[in-house]
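Milestone M4 deliverable, item 7.
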Amino acid sequence: MYSPEIFKITDEARIEDFLQAYPFATLVTEEEGRIEVTHLPINRLSDGKFYGHLAKANIHANIEQNKEICLIFQGPHAYISPRFYASAFQVPTWNYSAVHLYGKIAYIDDTQKAWSLITEITAYYEGEKGWKLPSEFRYQELMEHFRVFEVDVTKIQAKFKINQNKSQDDQKSVIKSLNAINEKKMAEFMQMMGSQDV
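Output delivered:
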């Protein structure tokens, strides 16, 4: 990922928070000369590892386990007009936030372990008072139709392009302008990151 130094994020805590907040990823691989893409949630679970699951009919449910994959996580993004800035001589741009995980897939074919992981993923999203995954056979039988996998992460790249190359006055003006046009997610993200040394 092209990333000038000013936009690179290396702080592990920030990256972890981002991955927790925006877990829906794009899985990209090369298969027999073609680019294959799958959209799916990826979660770091209680053992500290990243997991995902997909339908067995998906090409990504049966790829070489030593092949490099890329997972793309995207956070808030928005068009930035020159009129958003406090200073003159500006051009249009796009602010965005993204994290790329590189690594390899390791399929989990142990049914009991896969069921345990799916149960934990469900509980993560549902919360303590939400729907509980029943243990009855008709639910467990559905495991035959999808495959759970672990991601062995080898490299992480993170980039938050949020006007760090502009003055504080310009950054504040952009945040104000984004709020005015209801691009509140990007405005909040910029404000949150701006309160730290991005």
